[in-house]
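Session log. Operator J.P. requested a structure for one protein chain; no other inputs attached. Running the standard single-chain path with token output.
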Amino acid sequence: MNSQDLSALQLDALREISHIGMGQGATALSQLLSARIELRVPRVSRVDIAQVPELLGGAETPVVGVALQILGDARGDLLLILPQESAHRLLIRLLGKTPGSALLLDELGASALRELANILASAYLGALGDLLGISLLPSPPLLAADMLGAIVDDILIALSLGGNTALMVETEFVSAPMAAESIVGHLFLIPDPSLLAVLGRRLEGA
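Structure written below.
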């Protein structure tokens, strides 16, 4: 089975699973940041991962990317993309950095963002694994601050995706209703055939 085999109903079921998983992730982030984090309904789509830069503002958009492998009873990858400004606002809240100062990804800042990604991924995979009846765990996160196009290129090389086609679960989490204080991130689920096979079996008849 590959991502192209998922039906519209199965994609809807996967969207609902992702909504629940990201809801738990948003709760964990709210507790970590001591601020309300709102979840936007995730979009589930089959896209070429090479299109991600275009979808998120262009290849030259400065971002912080955190990649985690999915370990356990099935495999895949998670990719968290934070616009640089959102990463900056997260560090202000996490570390008390001075508002208006430039993003400084020193070891402390990078460690804080890796921990945040680990908490979000653990909550998401925990919910997904519970609903699928399997154990899913995140690997230690790898972080990079670069242009979006460069980060996606690195992911493509790391995944060795022949056709470059993957199933993407895109979720946005936003803090506070005021746009000036918003924190936006995108989480992409890139399942390998073992996870797609489980999804196919569990979602049959959805």
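Operator note: The longest strand covers residues 37-48.
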